[in-house]
Design a protein that fits this description.
The complex is a heterodimer. By secondary structure, chain A is an all-alpha fold. Chain A is built from 17 helices and no strands. Chain B has a single domain, classed as MetI-like (MetI-like fold, Orthogonal Bundle), CATH 1.10.3720. Chain B has a two-stranded antiparallel ribbon. In chain B, 43% of the residues are buried. The chains are: A mainly alpha, B mainly alpha.
Chain lengths: 315, 298
Amino acid sequence: MANNDVGLSSSSDVKNRKHLMSELELRPTNEALVPANYVVRRKLGAVFTHAVLIAGSVVFLFPLIWMISTSLKPLGQTMRMPPEWIPDPVMWANYAKAVNYVPFLHYAQNTLIIAILATLGTVVSSSIVAYGFSRIEWKGRDKVFLILLATMMIPFPVTMVPMYSVFRELHWIGTFRPLWVPAWLGASAFSVFLLRQFFLTIPRDFSDAACIDGCTEFGTLWRVILPLSRPALAVVALFHFLYCWNDFMGPLIYLIDQKNFTLALGLQFFQSMQGGTPWNLLMAASTLVVAPIVVLFFFAQKTFIEGITMSGLKG
Amino acid sequence: MTPRERRNLRNGLIFIAPWIIGFLIFVAYPLVASFFYSLCDYSVLRPPVYIGGLNYQEMAQDPVFWKSLGNTVYFTVLFLPLSTLVAIALALLLNTGVRGMAIYRTIFFLPSLTPLVALGILWMWMLNGEYGVINHVLNTLLKPLGVQAPAWLQSITWSKPAIVLMSLWGVGHAMVIYLAALQDIPVQLYEAAELDGARAWSKIRHITLPLLSPAIFFNVTMGIITAMQVFALPYVISSGEGGPARSTMFYSMYLYHTAFRYLRMGYACAMAWFLFIVIITLTLIFHRISRRHLHYGQ
């Protein structure tokens, strides 16, 4: 197949060739050789693409807009048919009410405590473990790494019950500990994997230079590797934070007391407890759960996209 | 072993020590223990009692077990191909060099960031039978045909398609992976094909899809693993009950009920191992089928 003949040796190489090729192609193109309707077809194609993309955007954005719109409506208006777009009057007070209706700030605090402890643990333990899997040559290393990769395939329910009984023996059920302590022991195989891939791309000479200066392995990790790996560390931290923010099953299993609930768990709990749900308040609470993530996304858009690309392409 | 090799081995093991400890406590021991529990009557409150294969025998005759397995397979079979199609189609559109690509990409990606609980509650509201905005639009459109929009989450037939619909809204994550893979395909392949007179479809068929196949393979494999374990969304929209009439009782939810509502931990472990085997089998079958179509650039 022709596909295999074009070696994708490296992306920069390909990019260079891309430029070369398009230049080469431009020169010999004679106006007379281009079919008359070619340009028109191209233009029509672009219009069609935009039309489809705009329609798609409406479909994808609508639920979020509807959520915000509902969150600002008086309760009576949420049940009016046909549905109305614009809240009338705009009830900013819904947000104040929602924050009390679902003990929002308290749940946000719980979520943050768990997410920060777990994210810190993941970044620290994964970089140490990833260093051992990438920057030190030892016998059997890559075989052990295969075991780590294989653990990612194990469905959570398989280990769920024994883990629960271990935590129960430790009297940790009902505390935050089951949700963050494992993170300090390299439990996020995915993060270790991501960091190892990144560490492998750092030239050997960098750490050799440190070795000559009498650096220990820990010193090399701390002074050479970590400063060079900031983008990868950001990806790992961001993804693990998101994971904790969104996690539902973990808190559902390990947290008992309502005052320890996380946002995800608390939101579900309040939704299912209330008969005749006040949808405007629920939408306000949901908006408040989604908003920090959207804000985070706009601040770290590049990290998000890079992270997903890194995780997806090297699988 | 030279002293250097010995030192490296020691250092390597010291560095991966946190993972080894974690692996032993959170993976290796639980794997062995859960297999043992699956052969036991175990309630956590009292020590396990060995009962041999009884849990597995009971599973074979448990209608809720089969129902939940059926629901889960239904979801996976409907969701995976649809989400792959939608994600690839969106990525292809974004890869045509349209202006404002980054804006469109952000729009399609944003919903996938919504936490599942918030996503579930939002769609419960939109799909509400009485006041839901979606049924209002559908009923207006369907009126001339004399058809009523379904009650979605209250309907045995439509509750699962509703969950598929909600999940499709989060397809942006896969789309970003496909888009990145598309951007790695060298332009000159298309230019060469164009010179040979290739039309849009044959370019997609003979260049794009083969070069995209590793990304498709990765996404679908991960998709099988996650779709078979779907939990949060059906839990939220049915308030943890799996209704109406168990139509949203998914495998992981039934497993959760057995373990933590009925405290039948042994039975839950047996179910978990069965799920594990199903997932491995499905992944292997998919691997077999796709092996012939995989093209790695390097």
